[in-house]
C-alpha cells in the first residue's frame, strides 16, 4: 500500500472519530432532553433541544454509514484496511460502554421518579384527610347550632367560633355552602330535599337551608340541602 493511501486511511479514521463523537454527543443530548420533558423543567425549551439532538443524530449517522460502506469497498480490495476496521470496532465498543452508563443513569432517574410519585401520593392522601376532618368539625358546629332551645350565649359563642374557623380554612381550600332564604336555587351547588308553597316567593327560590354544603379547592364536595318554593 503506498504512502498516499495510508495517509488517506488516517484522514478517514480521524473523520470517523469526529462523526462518532458527534453521534455520541447528540445521543446524550437526546436523553437529557427526554429527561427534561419528563420533569417539565421551565426556563428553556426542552422540545427544541430534542429536535436539535434528533437532527444531529441523523446528520452524524448518515456520514458514518457512508464511510462504513466505503471502508467495506476498500477492504475488499486492500486487506491492509483491516486495521481501520479494528479501530472502528474499538470505537463501537466504547460507544456501547457509554450507552450502558446512560442506561444506568436512566434507571436511577426512573427510581427517583417513582419515589417522587410515592411522596406526592402521600401528601395528597394527607391533604385529603385534612379536608375531611375540617368538614367534620364544621358539621359538628352545624349540629350544635341547630339544637332546639339552645342557650343564646352558647349559640353566639358557637357562631363566632364557626366564623373564625371558616376564615381559617377558606384560604386553604375549604368553603361552606350556606345559601340564605331568598337565594336562587342553583343545581350545581344545591340539592332539593323538599318543596313548599310560598305565594310571596317565585318558583325555584330557596326558603331554607337544611344542611350546609362544602366545596374543596373550587369543586363541590357535597351540595347544600335546601327547601325551595314550588317549581310551578
Topology diagram in text:
Layout: H1 3-39, H2 46-77, H3 82-145, H4 152-169, E1 174-177, E2 190-196, E3 206-211, E4 213-216, E5 219-222, E6 224-229
Parallel strand pairs: 2-6
Antiparallel strand pairs: 1-4, 3-6, 4-5
Helix pairs in contact: 1-2, 1-3, 3-4
What key attributes describe this structure?
3-stranded mixed sheet, single chain, 232 residues, alpha+beta, 13% strand, 3-stranded antiparallel sheet, Nucleotide Exchange Factor Grpe, Chain A, domain 2, 65% helix
Strand order of the largest sheet: 1-4-5
The ordered H/E elements are HHHHEEEEEE
Silhouette: elongated
The biggest sheet amounts to: 3 strands, antiparallel
- Which runs of at least 5 residues are low in confidence (pLDDT < 50)? 1-7
The total strand number stands at 6
Helix content: 55-70%
What do you see in this structure?
This protein is 65% helix and 13% strand. The chain has 232 residues and is of the alpha+beta class. The protein folds into 2 domains: 3-123; 174-232, Head domain of nucleotide exchange factor GrpE (Nucleotide Exchange Factor Grpe, Chain A, domain 2), CATH 2.30.22.10. It has a 3-stranded antiparallel sheet, with helices on one face. The chain is elongated and about 100 Å long. The model is unreliable at 1-7 (pLDDT under 50).
Q: Quick gist of this model?
A:
By secondary structure, the protein is an alpha+beta fold.
Amino acid at each position: 500500500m503506498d504512502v498516499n493511501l495510508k495517509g488517506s486511511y488516517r484522514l478517514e479514521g480521524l473523520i470517523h472519530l469526529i462523526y462518532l463523537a458527534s453521534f455520541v454527543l447528540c445521543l446524550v443530548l437526546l436523553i437529557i432532553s427526554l429527561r427534561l420533558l419528563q420533569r417539565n423543567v421551565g426556563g428553556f425549551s426542552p422540545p427544541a433541544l430534542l429536535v436539535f439532538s434528533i437532527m444531529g443524530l441523523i446528520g452524524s449517522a448518515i456520514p458514518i454509514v457512508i464511510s462504513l460502506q466505503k471502508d467495506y469497498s476498500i477492504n475488499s480490495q486492500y486487506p491492509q484496511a483491516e486495521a481501520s476496521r479494528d479501530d472502528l470496532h474499538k470505537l463501537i465498543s466504547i460507544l456501547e460502554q457509554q450507552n450502558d452508563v446512560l442506561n444506568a443513569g436512566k434507571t436511577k432517574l426512573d427510581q427517583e421518579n417513582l419515589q417522587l410519585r410515592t411522596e406526592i401520593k402521600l401528601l395528597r392522601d394527607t391533604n385529603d384527610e385534612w379536608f375531611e376532618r375540617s368538614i367534620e368539625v364544621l358539621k359538628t358546629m352545624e349540629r350544635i347550632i341547630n339544637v332546639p332551645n339552645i342557650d343564646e350565649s352558647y349559640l353566639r359563642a358557637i357562631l363566632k367560633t364557626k366564623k373564625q374557623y371558616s376564615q381559617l380554612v377558606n384560604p386553604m381550600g375549604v368553603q361552606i355552602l350556606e345559601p340564605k332564604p331568598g337565594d336562587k336555587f342553583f343545581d350545581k351547588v344545591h340539592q332539593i330535599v323538599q318543596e313548599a308553597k310560598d305565594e310571596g316567593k317565585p318558583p325555584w327560590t330557596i326558603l331554607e337551608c337544611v344542611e350546609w354544603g362544602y366545596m374543596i379547592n373550587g369543586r363541590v364536595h357535597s351540595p347544600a340541602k335546601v327547601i325551595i318554593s314550588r317549581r310551578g
